[in-house]
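Researcher: Sequence recovery benchmark, item below. Answer with residues only.
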């Protein structure tokens, strides 16, 4: 599948790997792909993010992703559902961090002792983004998978990246409108979301 990736898309994946290593995370997650997309310049995804006003709100996105990571990757919807069962996620995070330190629930290991030269693997969520990006590209009749397809996949798949992007006004519909205009907007949308 990677042979179908454009240079920009490959650089996003490489950036996600580097961010994973830098932070000491054990796996490359969908969040790492989003963070790598935020660092891009001069690509279709960076154009779309700038057009939607996200370029100047990168730190806000990073902060929201960091907060979700502290909650062990739970979305607000997950936390609300647990609250409905009488489980206060904020209280659990506070107690765990009190004993084990800030960020203990993120699963990251800052000491690097686990690393021993091994490459981090892709989490199921990151693999889903890569697979969905192929479906999005096909739905839009694009021959190659670009970083814009990775961005669109992140907006479709449920989870923290989609929630954070939507909170910042970046949805599948808004990105599609910026990238493809109204002409292709209706045709590929349902197919991409379903596939």
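Model:
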């Amino acid at each position: 599948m990677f042979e179908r990736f454009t240079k920009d898309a490959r650089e996003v994946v490489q950036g996600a790997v580097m961010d994973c290593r830098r932070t000491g995370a054990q796996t490359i997650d969908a969040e790492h792909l989003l963070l790598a997309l935020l660092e891009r310049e001069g690509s279709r995804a960076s154009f779309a993010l700038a057009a939607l006003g996200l370029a100047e709100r990168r730190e806000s996105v990073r902060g929201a992703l960091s907060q979700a990571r502290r909650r062990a990757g739970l979305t607000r919807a997950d936390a609300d559902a647990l609250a409905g069962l009488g489980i206060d996620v904020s209280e659990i995070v506070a107690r765990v961090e009190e004993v084990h330190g800030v960020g203990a629930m993120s699963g990251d290991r800052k000491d690097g002792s686990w690393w021993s030269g091994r490459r981090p693997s892709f989490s199921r969520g990151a693999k889903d983004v890569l697979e969905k990006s192929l479906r999005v590209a096909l739905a839009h009749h694009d021959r190659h998978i670009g970083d814009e397809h990775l961005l669109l996949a992140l907006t479709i798949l449920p989870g923290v990246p989609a929630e954070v992007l939507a909170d910042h006004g970046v949805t599948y519909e808004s990105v599609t409108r910026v990238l493809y205009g109204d002409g292709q907007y209706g045709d590929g949308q349902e197919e991409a979301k379903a596939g």
